Structure formats: C-alpha cells, structure tokens
Amino acid sequence: MAFPWQKVVQAVGDTVGPVTKIIMGNKQKKMARNLKRSDGFDYIAPELKENQDLSEQGAYSNRSFNQGVDEANLRKATAGSRYSAGLTGSAAKKLSAGASSENKYINRLQLLRQKGRNERLGRVDKLMNANVMVGNVRAANEQRFQDTKAALKGASMQNIYGGISSWGDAISNSASMFGGKKGGGMKFKSPSSFKF
C-alpha cells in the first residue's frame, strides 16, 4: 500500500508535463504571432544587390563603354583625312574627297552608336536577370517565412491541446488514486436538492 504523500507526489508529477506543454504551446503561439519578415526572412546576399545595382546603373545609357574615346579618335582620323584630301588635286577632287571623308565619318559614328545601343540591350538583359534572381530569393524567403509561421502555429496547437488532454487524464487518474472512480467524472447535485 502506498503512503498518501506518495500519491500526492505522483499526482503533482502527472500534472507537470501537461502544464509544461500548455506553457510551451502558448510561447510558440506568441512567437508565431510576433514573427516578422525582418527576423532574417528578408536577407538578400550583398553580391546579388550589388549586381542588381550595377546592372541598373548601365542599363539606361545608349553609350558603349569607351564610346567617348572612340568618337574622339574617329574625329581625329576624319580631320586628318580631310586635311590630306585638301592638299592635292583640283577643287572638284578636293570637294569629292571631303564629302567621302564626311560620309565615312557619319557611317563610323552610326556604327559606334549602334554598338552602344547593342551593349545597352545586353545590360538591360543583365538587369532583368539580376531582378529575376533577387525576386527568386525574395520568393524563397517569403515561403520560408510562411512555412516557419505555419510550423510554429501547428506546434502551438498540438502542444496546447495535447497538454489539455494529458492534464485531463492526469486529473482523472489522480481522482481514482484518492478514492474516486476512474473515468466516472464528478457527481453534481441537482439544483432542486439544495436547501435554502
């Protein structure tokens, strides 16, 4: 036969686990409610942001990388050919050579500008790729945030309701230890049996 204090210790021990589960469940519920995207779910690698920023800087310029230098060299070369064309020959020949030189200059200048536009299209493609990569990281972060929040809520519900259920079992077992009927529940008197 067990001593009465052993029954008390066992009854208290049986209720500690369920109460702990309920407390843990409430903490998880609070964590889920207070979880923010700024809690590490909005991280984007600095390299990706730098790539995006650099791509954005060059995406809106129609000039190629060395276009200013190339245009200056073209002007010098054209000026030299104009000068040499004007040194010899008749006036008509000089005029024709000057016009030919001017046409070559315009054509080369247009080619340089076309090169700049083509490079711009390449930079726009790089920007679009960088934006897609950053967008994918943001989507993955959002999914991780939602999954974490859902996991915390699920664990919270499981711990709270599991704790309540276990606590009910512990109370029922404690009642049977102290002479009550296990599973019999508590007996209440009907209000008509009360005497005033």
Plain-language structure description:
The protein has one domain (4-56, 65-178). With 196 residues, the protein is mainly alpha-helical. α1 (4-34) runs antiparallel to α4 (91-177), α2 packs antiparallel against α4 (91-177) and α3 packs antiparallel against α4 (91-177). 6% of the residues are buried. The protein starts with a helix and ends in a 19-residue tail after the last helix. The chain has helices at residues 4-34, 46-58, 67-85, 91-177. The chain is 77% helix and 0% strand.
Query: What's the β-strand tally?
Result: 0
Radius of gyration, in Å, reads 42 Å
* Structural class by sheet pairing and helices: mainly alpha
What string gives the helices and strands in order?
HHHH
Distance between the termini: 42 Å
Q: What is the overall silhouette?
A: rod-shaped
* Biggest beta sheet summary: none
Q: Into which percent range does the helicity of residues fall? A: over 70%
Unreliable segments (pLDDT under 50, ≥5 consecutive)? none
How many domains? The number is 1
Strand content: under 5%
Mean pLDDT across every amino acid position: 75
User: Helix count?
Assistant: 4
